[in-house]
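Hi U.,

Before I forget, here's the chain from the pilot set. I'm dumping it here mostly so it's searchable later in email.
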Amino acid sequence: MDRVQWQRLGDAVKTFLLSRRSREFLVFAFFLCVSAGFWLIQTLNDTYDMDVQVPVVLDNVPADIVVTDDLPSPIRVTLRDKGTNLIRYYRRANRPPVQIDFRAHQKTASLGHVVVAQSEVQKLLASYLLGSSRILAVHPDTIDYYFSHGIQKRIPVEIRGQVKANPLYYISAVRCEPDSVTVWAPASVLDTITVARTEDCNLTDLTQNDVRKVLLDAPKGVKFEPAEVSLLTSVDMYTEKSVTVPIVGINFPGDKSLITFPSNAKITFRIGTKQYKSVTADDFVVAVTYEELLQNPGTTFHLHVRSIPEGVSQVRISPETVDYLIEQADND
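Structure:
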């Protein structure tokens, strides 16, 4: 805008403010603000109930002590007071937390367990709250915590839950990193802890490798370090493979040998793509014992795969039955 346009705008505003309608609006707005102020003051003078979050910390904890179960912080305090006082708590959000002196309770602790009574909690809250505020309830109404005199040990991690792959895939490996953790607990509890169990891990229909953080399920009064582990699940896809395996006789006398028609069997099986090359015909055994044939009434027998490598499933053999004869060796 140029100077002339600014002058015209100023004249228009001045004319509006000096008009009768403008004066009536300004008078109305003034009395509206005054009325709202009186209403707010009257309202804030009434008594209300309000929940206040109060942070709590342990103070004077010796260097050789490990707190294995932290304080419930913040605690929720239900107060009753005038609104003018309650609104002041919104300005106290950054005040220092309520401090519980560890040394004051250490001698009376039972097996590394401290219970701070409700009466003492309310006494500690007096330094945080206004004198006019009345405490109606404290949640939790008592504060307790566990500690250890630095006693620890290393224990393995145990996965709890089920990990399943999609029907076209299989789980090739499930492991935790780290696979063991350090545990702190009171001496009476530490001896009973042999593994650190994860929270329930129920994974289904996996089609690819999976990595996720899982919390450890620490009993009350027990601290795991670290408190969570990485659950690594390796997933592989199934494929089908066939190998040709010779049919052999077992426990035959030295002067007798087994002849089958055909002499080999075809084995078809399902295996993961990662193991495809490593599994060969040498990993399978198709055999019949001499004792089985002595009890066999006919000239055919049903084939069985007597050795199957790990990771192989859905094994099929062809043919399922073969003809045979027992050949007598020539003593000459």
